[in-house]
């Protein structure tokens, strides 16, 4: 079969930045072509051009043997190219069905044909076996649910090229496998798929070819079966990363956080009892929606506690506000940096200092901020975390996802903290940046801090934690220490025992 899509010497120039530099590569029918590279390497720019978000500054796209220039995402979709981006394009106030048909509703004279609309939506949702109702309001869905709506929306029309940008970041293991089965079906139909991921396991599962980008340049394209993880990482970074996970010594001392029979008002956490001490890394594992995030968010005062007790260094802090917990020395780093962690339209400097404006040396006289100290501290922390580009005056929205995460991490270093809680600290982050974040977490622990990692990425739990709690449907099902933190032990408690036995039979 011939080429489906060819990019010929494509470049994209922004003011002061060459985001994509003379890139040439192809997509064939029925293949999954993974785009691999560090955050800021040019992957998002490339797929945005293919999807019609913006045209290239130089070069051209050849689609089905003909030069094309798409004027919009809608134009690209009319030609059979659909994309599912990290940033969703859903209208949260509308239902699942209304979002699926938005802009393409069947009409009866001048009015929307409700009966035909309902039939179309039900037919579309049957294709995917997703746990979605046409009448659910999208804004009330979890991020995983919204991700499934985006995927269903992208596949409504006849698709020749599908673009998936980190599509599993919010999905459970079951939903991820459903997506991979769908990808296999699309491949069998001749659909070409551009797929962006930082997860090696996903590459091994679905990739046919891998194109590596670095600093906007195309480093090379390799067959997935013929390349090792180390070779990919070296192509991506230009250097060898000898050890992804640091060896973090455990020096468990005084108990910082003690939680007894915790239950949240919405029922997402039920009778949870756990503890965290200085000098250790404690992991919270489980499927998306199991309550692992909500348990720690309740300790920090974000979720409402219905019953139970939270003590911090022996003091009862149950029901304290996030401000009060921050002042006591607990810091929660949100899993959703765009909605909760960062102000996207403000500078890196302002974001880094945001949690400490009321403390010296940030605070000047009255309610004023000492801008010189704010700038000096932000630049020092940005340098420590290797922010790229090293420009703390740049709006956070202009940084790549991995560098936005570094700004988020820098925030917790601006004041005295005894307990650091990292909720999904490496979502959407490339391998090199992951290595830096893991080393950063290790340093905090070695300096005597208490650290919690909440993660859906099992290797993080297996390789970084000294103790691990496993949650399922709001309850802590298991607690493992040291050598007992194994994949078999952890996964064995991801599902309810009855579900596991049913699956086995």
UniProtKB/TrEMBL annotation:
GO cellular component: plasma membrane
Family annotation (InterPro entries): AAA+_ATPase (IPR003593), ABC_carbohydrate_import_ATPase (IPR050107), ABC_transporter-like_ATP-bd (IPR003439), ABC_transporter-like_CS (IPR017871), P-loop_NTPase (IPR027417)
GO molecular function: ATP binding; ATP hydrolysis activity
Domain annotation ABC transporter: ranges: 5-240, 251-498
Subcellular location field: Cell membrane
Pfam family, one: ABC_tran
Keywords in alphabetical order: ATP-binding, Cell membrane, Membrane, Nucleotide-binding, Repeat, Sugar transport, Translocase, Transport
Membrane topology note: Peripheral membrane protein
PANTHER family, per database record: CARBOHYDRATE TRANSPORT ATP-BINDING PROTEIN MG119-RELATED, D-ALLOSE IMPORT ATP-BINDING PROTEIN ALSA-RELATED
Name recorded for this polypeptide: Sugar ABC transporter ATP-binding protein
């Amino acid at each position: 079969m011939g080429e489906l899509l060819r990019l010929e010497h494509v470049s994209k120039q922004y003011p002061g930045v060459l985001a994509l530099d003379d890139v040439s590569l192809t997509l064939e029918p029925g293949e999954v072509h993974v785009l691999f590279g560090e955050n800021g390497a040019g992957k998002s720019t490339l797929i945005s051009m293919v999807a019609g978000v913006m045209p290239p500054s130089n070069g051209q796209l050849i689609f089905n043997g003909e030069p094309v220039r798409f004027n919009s995402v809608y134009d690209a979709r009319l030609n059979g190219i659909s994309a599912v981006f990290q940033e969703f394009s859903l209208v949260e106030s509308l239902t699942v069905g209304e979002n699926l048909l938005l802009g393409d509703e069947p009409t009866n004279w001048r009015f929307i044909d409700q009966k035909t609309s309902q039939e179309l939506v039900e037919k579309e949702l049957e294709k995917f076996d997703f746990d979605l109702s046409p009448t659910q309001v999208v804004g009330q869905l979890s991020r995983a649910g919204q991700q499934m709506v985006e995927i269903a929306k992208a596949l409504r029309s006849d698709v020749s090229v599908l673009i998936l940008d980190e599509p599993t970041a919010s999905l459970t293991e079951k939903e991820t496998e459903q997506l991979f089965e769908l990808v296999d079906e699309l491949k069998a139909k001749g659909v070409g798929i551009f797929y962006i991921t930082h997860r090696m396991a996903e590459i091994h599962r679905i990739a046919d070819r891998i194109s590596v980008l670095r600093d906007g340049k195309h480093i090379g394209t390799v067959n997935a079966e013929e390349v090792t993880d180390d070779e990919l990482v070296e192509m991506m970074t230009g250097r060898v990363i000898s050890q992804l996970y640091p060896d973090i010594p455990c020096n468990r001392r005084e108990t910082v956080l003690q939680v007894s029979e915790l239950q949240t008002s919405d029922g997402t956490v039920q009778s949870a009892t756990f503890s965290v001490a200085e000098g250790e890394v404690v992991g919270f594992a489980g499927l998306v929606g199991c309550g692992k995030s909500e348990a720690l968010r309740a300790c920090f005062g974000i979720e409402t506690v219905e019953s139970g007790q939270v003590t911090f260094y022996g003091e009862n802090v149950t029901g304290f506000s996030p401000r009060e917990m921050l002042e006591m020395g607990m810091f929660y780093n949100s899993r959703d940096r765009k909605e909760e962690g960062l102000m996207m339209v403000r500078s890196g400097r302002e974001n880094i200092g945001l949690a400490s404006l009321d403390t010296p040396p940030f605070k000047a006289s009255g309610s004023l901020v000492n801008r010189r100290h704010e700038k000096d501290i932000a630049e020092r922390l940005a340098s420590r975390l290797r922010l790229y580009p090293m420009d703390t005056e740049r709006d956070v929205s202009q940084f790549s996802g991995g560098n936005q995460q570094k700004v988020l991490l820098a925030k917790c270093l601006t004041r005295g903290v005894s307990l650091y809680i990292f909720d999904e600290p490496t979502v959407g982050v490339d391998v090199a940046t992951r290595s830096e974040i893991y080393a950063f977490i290790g340093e905090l622990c070695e300096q005597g801090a208490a650290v919690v990692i909440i993660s859906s990425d099992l290797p993080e739990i297996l390789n970084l934690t000294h103790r691990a709690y496993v949650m399922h449907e709001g309850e802590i099902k298991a607690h493992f220490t040291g050598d007992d933190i194994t994949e078999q032990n952890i996964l064995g408690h991801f599902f309810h025992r009855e579900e596991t036995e049913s699956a086995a039979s």
